[in-house]
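User: Once you have settled down, look closely at the record that follows, taking as long as you need, and be ready to discuss the fold:
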Amino acid sequence: MKTFQNQVAIVTGAGQGIGLEICRELASQGASVVLNDIEQSLAEEAARSIQKEHGRCIPFGGDASNVSFIQEMVNEAVRQFGKLDIAIANAGITLYGDFFEYKSEDFEQVMKVNLGGSFFLAQAAAQHMKENGISGRILFMSSVTGHQAHKNLAAYGMSKAALEMLAKTLVVELSPFRITVNAIAPGATATERTMSDPNYERTWSRITPIGKPATTHDIAHAALFLVSPEAGHITGQALVIDGGWTSVSPSPY
């Protein structure tokens, strides 16, 4: 039997990059997946690619920071597949800016998506799990910027560090219902977005001890472990996946 046979997962912000790879690998291991992206067309295209390869994946386009939409997404997962076992809050935004000039609207948007979307997805998913006796898995997407300072990323790094504290805090709330909650903190990762910078791979290969940035497979494999039955006694933890960068932390600038 495949690892995630008969399990149902929601992954937000999954139209491309790390989120898409997580969906693809969950589906390949037997999960039924609700794939969210804020762009409906991107969600549909991504879901179709997984359907052709592995089967059960449906798109659900919309704003994963909107509380009403989050509840609709959980309801749709249950309506389509009967339950929800796994919730992965992958959606996030990065808005660079000098601290002295950072706009309040940018700060609020980063917190709404990165923190609010993650918090309320966890709340809605855990409520369903609690009411239905499901030993579920919740996973947050942190970042190495929550561990080490990056220029012009004060708000973003703050939001990512907060997600790791949220995972730790929710242990108290969710452990009585056998629901685990963890975070992963990727470092430099080759995705469609990052590779649009022609210097990205060369720069991060030079300053990453292992000699290259991560692939989306590297991050997805860690995510799948933490939401798998094999990780049932791991909760409240944050796993850094950065090729050793946080051990030495040279700046890319």
Notes: The first strand starts at residue 8 and ends at 11. The mean pLDDT is 96. The domain at 8-243 is CATH 3.40.50.720 (Rossmann fold). The chain has one domain: 8-243.
